[in-house]
Every structure is written in C-alpha cells, then in structure tokens.
Amino acid sequence: MHKILVTGSEGQLGSDLVVALRHVYGVNNVIASGWRTPPQNAKTSPYAIVDVTDSASITAIIQDYQIDTVYHLAGILSAKGEQHPDRCWDVNINGLRNVLEAAKIFKLHVFFSSSIAVFGPHTPKLDTPQITVEDPSTMYGITKVTGELLCQYYAQRFGVDVRSLRLPGIISHTSPPGGGTTDFAVEIFHAALQTGTYTCFVRPETRLPMMYMPDAIRAMLGIMQADTSKIKIRSSYNVAAVSFSAEELVAEIQTHLPHFTCRYAPDFRQAIADSWPAVIDDSKARADWGWQHQYDLATIVTDMLQALKPSSVKDSCHHEENSNLSVSSTIR
C-alpha cells in the first residue's frame, strides 16, 4: 500500500485531494502537511508540519512515514504572488526542487500542480496547444514554467517519476479560494446566496478555462494511476473541462436565482486574466492516459448552489430537488 505525502494540504486543492486519497488508500496512509499549526481534524488523522523550503524538513517526514509518493501542491498563487514575489519564488521553486531532490534520493513518485499561468500575452488564446509560447507576466507563472522545466529535467536526467497537470481555474464549494485570479468563479456563488449581488474584479466578457473540483481530483488521480508507459510528457499536461466568461457564469446563476445581480469593477487581476488563454487544447492528455471531464457549466452551477445553500433552505427543498450531481466525500 502506498504511503502518500500531500504538501499544501490546507489549500483549496489540497484539502479535497487528501479526502479523496484517504478514501482510496486509507486514512493512515495519507499524510497531510502544511507549515502552520495542524487543523482540528489532525488529531484523528496523520498530519505533519513541513516547510517545503527546508530540505531537511522534507527528508525527515519522508523517512519518518516511509513515504513513496508526494503530491506537491504547496505554493503561492497568482494574485498573492504579485504582492509577495520573493516569497512566491522561494516557496514555489525552492520547495519544488527540494521535493524533486528527495524524489531522486528516495525513488519517490511525484505529482506537481502546474497552471495555465505558464502562458502569457503571446500564447494563442483559443485552443492553446500543448507545446506553445510560454511567456507569463506574473511571478507565479514564471515559477510554474520553471517548475515544469525542473520536472522534465529530473525525469530525463535522474529518472524521477514526476507527473504534472496545467490546471485551469478550480471551482469548489468545500474550501475558500486561496488568492488566485480565477477566485471570482467561487466568490460569486457565496455572494449570490448570501447577499444577492456581487462585484466582479474582471470584465464581463473575460473568458477563462475552468474546472470543477471533482474533475480536478479525477485528473490528478488519473495521471498518477496511469501506467508509466502512457506518460509521454514530463513537463506538464494541458487539461481542460469548460471555458466561460464572467457574464455567462452570471447568466447561468440567474437561471436559478433570477434576482441575482452583478456589477463589474476590474482590478489588477484583470491584466493577469487578459494574459491567459480562453480555451485549452488538452488532446494529448485525452489520448495518452484517457483524461475526460464530466462537469459542464450548467451542472457546475447546479451543484455549487445546492451544496452552498443554507441548511434550512436545503431541508425545505429536499423533496423538490433530487440532484445526482452532489459532490461525494471522496472528491472536492
């Protein structure tokens, strides 16, 4: 049975990934980790304090728990990375290199979460291919490009089994967003239910690739469970699900909540969004290891609103709604 370490486990992606991995591999075989005091549930499940910028900290955990697989999610996201570029570089690059060095020594399997932030203003916006111009305009994007090259180098030079996905914006109802440029696609649901109005920080026509958390979890588990012979790309695979504009998201929410309103007040994140693609070509992932998404915009909105609806409202509507789209406890 695998012994798995998840770095950045308290983040938007990590918190749901830990649940999914524990469902598959068992609670005691998945060690969540972060650099802060353990959360409350750590009293009943394995949790380790790990500073990914400290190689000795990573080595100690790997040896203590006899780790053979690392899902490396620890990182500073795009918007926060622009506010703290030095910290972004330290965590995102030095943290990854420490994990890859440990993988080289201890023969670990590694997952690295990259991002569409590797692309930039000269990248084709529609059907962005697997191999294309990567000229990011953010420190976050720069660290992800560098991270992809490090992964490819360690795979080719040292034989490290590292696998990676260029994830789009992730939509989830189980944890708050973590300082990314696509956060509006999560914040808007909370605002729609709580106040009936939202101020969006990108223009209405801004279109970005997005993915619902259950699909993101399936993609990560899918690439890590695939036979080694199927993994042809060791930098990072494009993966995609849906692409929509801010105004299209608003319109879909209004089919459920007709009185919901949205105003637009673009801030510094608009420039970041403008530098990213609108639609991603992920045909290589689909051909190589069988990637397929399941959720479109309509099913995402239906499930998000049902999951976030206040419990009293849920109870009163339970006899009217019997959605088969609810997120199970194994996915985020």
Can you describe what's shown?
Pfam families: Epimerase. This is NAD-dependent epimerase/dehydratase family protein. The chain has 332 residues and is of the alpha/beta class. The protein contains 12 helices and 12 strands. It has helices at 12-25, 55-65, 78-83, 85-106, 139-158, 184-194, 213-225, 246-254, 269-274, 283-289, 297-308, 311-317, and strands at residues 4-7, 30-34, 47-49, 69-72, 109-115, 161-167, 169-171, 197-200, 207-212, 237-238, 242-245, 261-264. The strands form 3 sheets. Strands 3-2-1-4-5-6-10 form a 7-stranded parallel β-sheet, with helices on both faces. It is globular. It starts with a strand and ends in a 15-residue tail after the last helix.
The total beta strand count reads: 12
Terminal-residue CA separation: 23 Å
Number of helical regions: 12
Strand content: 15-25%
> What's the architecture of the largest domain, going by CATH?
3-Layer(aba) Sandwich
Order of helices and strands: EHEEHEHHEHEEHEEHEEHEHHHH
The neighbouring-strand order within the major sheet is 3-2-1-4-5-6-10
**Mean pLDDT score, rounded?**
91
Bin the helical content: 40-55%
Q: What's the number of domains? A: 2
Low-confidence segments, given as residue ranges, are 311-332
Determine Rg (CA atoms, Å).
19 Å
Instruction: Supply the CATH superfamily name of the largest domain.
Output: NAD(P)-binding Rossmann-like Domain
Name the CATH class of the largest domain.
Alpha Beta
Overall shape: it is globular
Helix/strand class: alpha/beta
- Characterize the biggest β-sheet: 7 strands, parallel
CATH topology name of the largest domain: Rossmann fold
